[in-house]
Amino acid sequence: MEYRVEFSKEAFADLNRCYIAINAFEDIQAARWFDRFENTIASLSRLPERCKLAVEANSLRHPIRQLLFGRNADVYRVLFEINKKTSLVQIITIRHGAMKRLSKAEYDSIVKNPN
């Protein structure tokens, strides 16, 4: 089954912040890394269930999954939900691995205003 991948407003802003943070507009190596990151996110259109449930899934009582990208201290977590009925993968937020976990208040705010 092929899924449509959509970004919440928050996730799209997160992706833009990442682009700026790694200086991808001036550094060719960073731009290549960012392209791989975007392609990895796009790959969620196929087999998104391959990704494990995120740590937050239990406390938020939602089946939030995470796609990990990067190495060592530079791992990014792409948090998303799968809607099988509509064949949709909704990217909730993108966080650096060192950032705090997604809170219930943050989740509710993002989900209520997805686009």
CATH architecture: 2-Layer Sandwich
Integer-rounded radius of gyration? 14 Å
Strand content: 25-35%
User: What is the domain total for the residues?
Assistant: 1
Gap between N and C termini:
24 Å
Enumerate the strands of the largest sheet in spatial order, edge to edge or round the barrel: 1-4-3-2
Number of continuous helical runs: 4
> What number is the mean pLDDT?
91
Would you list the SSEs in sequence order as H and E?
Answer: EHHHEEEH
The protein's oligomeric status is single chain
- Describe the main β-sheet briefly: 4 strands, mixed
Unreliable runs = none
Determine and state the CATH class.
Alpha Beta
Shape: globular
Given helix and strand content, the structural type is alpha+beta
CATH topology: YaeB-like fold
- The CATH superfamily turns out to be RelE-like
